[in-house]
Design goal:
- By secondary structure, the protein is of the alpha+beta class.
- The protein has a single domain, classed as Alpha-Beta Plaits (2-Layer Sandwich).
- It has four helices and six strands.
- Strands 1, 2, 3, 4, 5 and 6 form a six-stranded antiparallel beta sheet that branches.
- It is globular and about 40 Å long.
Length: 172
């Protein structure tokens, strides 16, 4: 059931010395996730998007994975941060360019408002085309656990200026 899905956002916009271009880094991140106690069940196509908020950073490659795990939300987020660090991610400033970004978007129907760590669902999930378009591919029936909106409703409400285009590369 899509409402029970555990969803992870995957993104990169810098070349990784270990894995290459952002697309290859994202594909390698999915493989790395699957080598832990996290089972990757579905992966969206990859999308290219402009940075949000707008900046002179390179465009991002983004996707979404639906996973299963016995970890708690906090444990899952910690594991995602470990993977980011192994890929060379250093957290310095919000919205900075990055080698890898792994976000816990949703953990089933759980709701944990800020300042909870992790905040669930991700607080900006409904505002980002680069999240919602790939999310629709892995969990088309997913509903926001706070306001009940369907993915297609959230997509329809997006700012039309958001730039996210599907790449012609199949998911790995």
């Amino acid at each position: 059931m899509d409402d029970e899905a555990i969803l992870i956002g995957i993104g990169a916009n810098l070349t990784s010395p270990l894995h290459g271009a952002p697309l290859q880094t994202c594909v390698a991140a999915v493989a790395a996730i699957g080598r832990t106690e996290i089972a990757v069940r579905r992966v969206s196509a990859w999308y290219e998007s402009a940075p949000v908020p707008a900046s002179d950073q390179p465009h991002y490659v983004n996707g979404v994975a639906a996973v299963e795990t016995g970890l708690t939300p906090a444990g899952l987020l910690a594991r995602l941060h470990d993977i980011e660090a192994a890929f060379g991610r250093v957290r310095r400033a919000r919205n900075e360019a990055r080698v890898l970004d792994l976000d816990l978007l949703a953990f089933g129907r759980r709701v944990a408002p800020a300042p909870a760590r992790p905040t669930l669902p991700h607080p900006r999930l409904a505002e980002r085309a680069f999240v919602l378009l790939p999310l629709r591919e892995v969990a088309p029936g997913w509903r926001h656990p706070v306001d009940g909106r369907r993915v297609d409703e959230m997509i329809a409400a997006l700012d039309p200026e958001q730039d996210a285009r599907r790449l012609d590369t199949p998911p790995e």
